[in-house]
Amino acid sequence: MTLFDTTLRDGEQTPGVSFTVDQKVEIARQLAATGIGTIEAGFPASSAEEREAVQAVARAVDSARICGLARMRRDDVDACTACGVGMIHVFVPTSDIQREYTIKKSRQEVLDATAEVVAYAREQVPHVLFSAMDATRTDRDYLAEVCRAAVDAGATTVNIPDTVGVMTPTAMKELIAWAVKEVKAPIDVHCHNDFGLAVANTLAAVEAGAAQVQVTVNGMGERAGNADLAQTAMALEAIYGIETGVVSNRLLETSRLVSRYAGISIPPGQPVVGENAFSHESGIHAHGIIEHPDTFEPGIMTPEMVGHRRRLKLGKHAGRHAVRQMLADVHMQPDDAALDQILAKMKAIASRGRRITDADLYAIAEEVMGMAGVTPAVGLRDIAVFTGTHSMPTASVSLIVDGAEKVGCSTGNGPVDAAMKAILRCLDEPVHLKEFAVESISGGTDAIGHVTITVEDRAGHIFDASASSDDIVIASVDAMINAINLLQRVQGAKTGE
């Protein structure tokens, strides 16, 4: 089974997304390292900038086949060839509605163009992918005719795209089974997610004999997007037992890289790569996971397999076993009575709609257990922030880190961003800011803001903390420092320091 990734082409057609040349090259290298066999780098004929990007990708990546997109035009094919790609993806609308309203050609004109341009493309490169655009709404007899014309002209693979995402798995399976019999070439599918069925339709196509499937990182693409790379790959590998060549433990880092460059955050509930994909809050679930992970996880897909980590979450559904385990991780051992009080206080806060952070748990436990607060490793000595209408926001912070003064300065997209970056520059160990959330807990221009910060250390461990202030910059700084101190506290407990 071959995976064809079109993040750099269809994925970039996500409204508001535009990758730079350097970003496209880095994403392509990451996809190749993740084991993707074919990477569609873009549509060279669309602009000079796109030609530059496709050419750069083709030059930078040699461990995967690089593909360029072309309409049924010789000059489009020439643009792909000039970029040095190893595959040309030629497409033409075949449904009556698209053919009549987009390219305004007759069925015979489409057949003639297909035969001519596919043959021309095959003279230039060893691999030609032909797409009958909007195939799932194309008359079946005509679809067979145009696909056969493409194969006769030299197409090495035929794509049956569900361009507007209208198929169901049952219908997709029947269509691909028919195509496998009718078309004497490997069948590829490209499924859109308009009804949330892209991955299901892709898997149904595989069941029917499709030899290649098209995917995008994080399911990006036109409208509701395409079949998601991580979901498709892991379903094929873990459920169907089909080898895809994907290096599964790189799926999470690939997802995060593309998320960062696209400026689109990964939903917490996103399967496989979302923050909650292997997180557990419910007491029954957390208890089961502590005893044996397979109780409330698939088992055939573990967090480690996809580069993820399992995490117990705090909230009003949290149970005794999860809280006891999290406290034990920092050498806190409450007795049963104290644990009951800790749980009661936590759930009272959560029931008011407030998120419970890791730092909240430890502070509550210290109070209930009568423990002296842990001396923080990092403390704020001073902060200065400068911003203006025509100046770059700049922050300077002075921190006491393990008894020594550290000073950090940075610019940012705003005063909060500048302050966060300045703090991180004072640390010896790298810390990644994963999540920043702010909410108002009082009204008026002097409203109290509550900031919650989530950070991740180099080993992938995640910690969160919060702070409140009528100055949002100060609240943000305090929350970040609380999170860093929590991170160092847990790390120290695990190393016995």
Can you describe this structure?
This protein has 497 residues and is α/β, with parallel strands linked by helices. The protein has three domains: 2-262, Alpha-Beta Barrel (TIM Barrel); 282-369, no CATH class; 378-495, 2-Layer Sandwich (Double Stranded RNA Binding Domain), CATH 3.30.160.270. Helix content is 41%, strand content 21%. The chain contains 16 helices and 16 strands. It has helices at residues 21-33, 48-60, 74-82, 96-103, 107-124, 140-153, 169-182, 198-207, 229-239, 251-262, 283-291, 320-328, 336-351, 358-369, 415-424, 472-495, and strands spanning 2-5, 38-42, 65-70, 87-93, 127-133, 157-162, 187-191, 212-215, 279-280, 311-312, 378-388, 391-401, 404-411, 431-440, 449-457, 462-469. The strands form four sheets. The protein has an eight-stranded parallel β-barrel, surrounded by nine helices. Helix 5 (107-124) packs parallel to helix 6 and helix 15 (415-424) runs parallel beside helix 16 (472-495). The longest helix has 24 residues, at 472-495. It is elongated and about 85 Å long.
How many β-strands, per DSSP? 16
The radius of gyration is 27 Å
Through-space gap between termini = 49 Å
Task: Count the DSSP helices.
Answer: 16
CATH-defined topology of the largest domain: TIM Barrel
Instruction: Report strand %.
Output: 15-25%
Give me a quick take on this structure:
The protein is an alpha/beta fold and 497 residues long. It contains 16 helices and 16 strands. The protein is 41% helix and 21% strand.
